[in-house]
Amino acid sequence: MCVCVCVYIYRERDKRGTRCIGKFIVEASAKFGHPTFALVRESTLSDPAKANIAKGFKSLGVNLVHGDINDPGTLLNVIRQVVVISTVEISPEDQYKIIAAITIVGNIKRFLPSVFGNHADRVHAVEPARIFYAAYYTDILRLLEEQGIPYTYVSCNFLAGWHHTTLAQPGATAPSRDKVVILGDGNAKVVFNREDDIGIYTMKAMNDPRTLNKILYIRPPANTYSMNDLVSLWERKISKTLERVYIPEEQVLKKIRDARSPDDLMWAIYHSIFVKGDQTNFEIEPSFGVEASELYPNVKYSTMDEYLDQFV
Amino acid sequence: MCVCVCVYIYRERDKRGTRCIGKFIVEASAKFGHPTFALVRESTLSDPAKANIAKGFKSLGVNLVHGDINDPGTLLNVIRQVVVISTVEISPEDQYKIIAAITIVGNIKRFLPSVFGNHADRVHAVEPARIFYAAYYTDILRLLEEQGIPYTYVSCNFLAGWHHTTLAQPGATAPSRDKVVILGDGNAKVVFNREDDIGIYTMKAMNDPRTLNKILYIRPPANTYSMNDLVSLWERKISKTLERVYIPEEQVLKKIRDARSPDDLMWAIYHSIFVKGDQTNFEIEPSFGVEASELYPNVKYSTMDEYLDQFV
């Protein structure tokens, strides 16, 4: 399985139904199930005979790229098809392996590193989260910049399925119906996103010039809640008042110091998010980032409000 | 439209039906219609829960690439997906534009330059064919070698639809029923291939390590005929004897000298093929080439014999 990029130029002989080889190669590639891209000239569509060939290509699933061989931009774009997405929270060492491979392969279209999480550069994290963020996110971002690898860094904040269902209570498997533990004063705003929405925003962003070498923050207004407001929302849904146990910052810091690895890291990340509000306590400046729900207003993302209904 | 290469590593949380983002990104990519490749570990298939995710990916049309992030080979291969095929007999200048773009984009998987034709390095052509072959084929091949661009050079010889139908008579639109003009003594062997067979062989070859930096000669035994034998085949089919008009080499050379451009080039190419036998008068050495019908014996290519039946 390969990706076939065919530079196909319609010739007059094609019109006579005769046998220029280009058309047959494009067709064979599509019939073999290879994702096939054909560069065709814009003028192709205005001539009925040419448009017919283009239609035949389309019916076989060929992706027509309109452009001209004399325009270096389209030619580069048609060849530079590959976007690499690293989708897992893997170790920095694994990220480096992917980046090394990208460097060898050359100039891919875009790389989306495995940083689907909180934004690292502007967090106020204590150890061991500080060094974790630096190694997993910041250092990798710097390397991409140094290497000139075109990237989009997706900062998707919390995953809904992991945190919505538990009201962000470590160890829980469903939203509590009696007691919730809240770190800090519960007023820091945190962001919860559904996984399929993150997928949609990622697909929209990966080929968008506005997200090139930028951080895409997925911070939809309707999914940005303080823990106090989130618990209130859940209370209204189940018509019940929960006991709220607040853990002040000093105690959270003590938990981090006293916990063993990897629990100390988890608590330090929670401290950054729930106490320091690091998911939301900065403005997204055009110099470094864009916000997904602003950039793609037509995406109807799932709201926390709807999402929690299933657990009522 | 992009090609998405996702480095997806199954995590235990996936098993619990919960929400690791990798799976969602892979699914979103396929649902958006992007050709999607996912690197998954070999071990994924032995575990039922993992196999289930792999099955889900497959049903969405995701191309699973088995490998490991620790194996640089698979990682490079999964990123290096793009094969560029230049399918038209375009000018050398246009070929150079494509090669320049490939050089900028970097290390693509394979380039198949637009040399679907006669093999240039071993022809005994007179001018203006000699310089034509050098500019269109030989110089481009040398440039690819110099630049280290992985290539396969498809030498498909004559196109069936263009030459079968006319018994290689310039200007004819159907096989003659009275007279044929034969250049030289008619004993040089020439090769005729159907366009769709060329497409199939090209697809087989483009990702085959045996064709890397080699010339793929499409020279199936059943389609290799001298003009004398070809005319005899046609005569048997129509049960009629044709008048054979032989043009000796000296007269062909005079035609080349006297003709105006581009007819002089056409006659010089015909001289190389029909008089000198340049399609077949050399052995295909493993150092530079492979023969398609030997390499892919399972391809049932169309024969000249069958092909001519439609005109009887």
Automatic annotation (TrEMBL), chains A, B:
Keywords in alphabetical order: NADP, Oxidoreductase
Keyword Disulfide bond in annotation: no
Signal peptide start-end: none
Stretches assigned to the NmrA-like domain: 20-308
Matches recorded under InterPro entries: NAD(P)-bd_dom_sf, NmrA-like, NmrA-type/Isoflavone_red_sf, PCBER-like
GO molecular function: oxidoreductase activity
CDD domains recorded: PCBER_SDR_a
Residue stretches in coiled coil: none
Family indicated by similarity: Belongs to the NmrA-type oxidoreductase family. Isoflavone reductase subfamily.
Protein name: NmrA-like domain-containing protein
Organism in which the protein naturally occurs: Eucalyptus globulus (Tasmanian blue gum)
